[in-house]
Amino acid sequence: MLAVFCLRLGSGMLACLLLLPATQIHPRFYRTHFLTALGLSGLALFGAWDGGTAVVRGVIGAAGALCFLAAVVWSLEGAPGGRTLIVVTCAALIGALVFTEKAAPPGEAEARPLASLLAGDLTSAALLGSAMTAMLLGHSYLIAPGMSMTPMFRLLGTFAVAVLLRMAADGVCLWRWTAAHSLGTLNNDDLLWLPVRWFVGFVLPLVLGWMAWQTARIRSTQSATGILYVVVIFCFLGELTSQLLREKGITF
Q1: Is the pLDDT of residue 22 over 80?
Q2: Which of these, 8, 12, 146, 169, has the minimum number of CB atoms within 10 Å of its CB?
Q3: Per-domain boundaries in the chain
């Protein structure tokens, strides 16, 4: 569970960098993102070390090495090949994520079609990555208050779409599950976590995301950043709860 969560978050964060105009964002923002992804890769490697195969460990390690290389490149003047490294490193993290999923214990993810794995991984990565990147970008406005609001609006719009896509994916998964099972077969833990997953993981982030958008419109970036802190916490809780329900096929 730890490895999957970390790789989803890392790949989502790097993918969101492609939405940002490099001419308006300081290179240290990109460098910090890659260093964060490097740390997440290390946690993923730790989480997958015992249960994962040598191939899984190697793929995660290679993705981490690319994160380090990209962080070095974005430390150089002009960041030569920096945008290309964003794409390559993001693809490497997604590949590591798929390998990690396929190496899961019997009865879990390896029995799922690749399309189902990608639906869950990509929508979760988009949700986690856009929330975290928007929150971190908010800090840039605290030290550069004159910066254009366009990058923030792009990320907040992406976050809203990501929440809806993630909600749709989990809705389809839950509908398929209920078509083959009765809700009465859920145990007490599942009945507790399912409402939490939907309310904390979807409803509250959508409401708070709208609030962050409204505060950003009046350039109250400090307030927007504070709201996004809470959004990130709720998204983390929602996705971790989803991992608990995922083993039974109730969520992606």
Answers
A1: yes
A2: 146
A3: 1-110, 112-252
